[in-house]
Amino acid sequence: MLWIAHAAYAAAALLMMAVLLMPLWIEPGGWPGPDLLTGLTFAWVLRRPEQVPALLIALVMLTADLMLQRPPGLWAALALCASEVLRARRRTPRPLSFPMEWALVAVLIFAMALADWVLLTVTLAAHAPLPHMLAATAVTIAAYPVPAMALRLAGIRRLDYPSGVIRRTRA
User: Fold this and answer.
1) 146-162 b/e (C-beta count within 10 Å ≥ 16 → b)
2) In this predicted model, what pLDDT tens digit does every residue of 46-57 receive, in sequence order?
3) Which DSSP string corresponds to 70-108?
4) Closest by alpha carbon to 56, among 79, 86, 88, 85?
């Protein structure tokens, strides 16, 4: 059953990459599209961390870097670090409400984008100006409920404890 979830995540990621590679947007300018792959990864890690292991996230994000002609490994490393922060958050006794989850993901996406921009600036690599990066980050943060709702509709829900239940650890 776990392999089915791994395959579903990889298939959803490849489908998103394929849509991004299609020549659907002809006119340049306007608002950038959201990074739904990062949103999907974070939402899935927060709901079912056992279904998206770190190696699978690294492979999917590295594939996205290569297919979308981003600097290979940079966004993948940042997304892997952020997803591990979210995975560690799942070990706390209190579940997150959706607004708090969205805020946590927003902080992580902003930190990832800022780190990406700073690293590309320091290495003198070609990259978007800061206002464009901030616009893309804002659109990605605003679109986070879309992959979260898609996972909910697909039946992938959080396995949180009901309210009032406290986890007890063995002594």
Assistant:
1) ebbeebeeeebebeeee
2) 999 999 999 999
3) PPTTHHHHHHHHHHHHHHHHTTSSSPPPHHHHHHHHHHH
4) 79
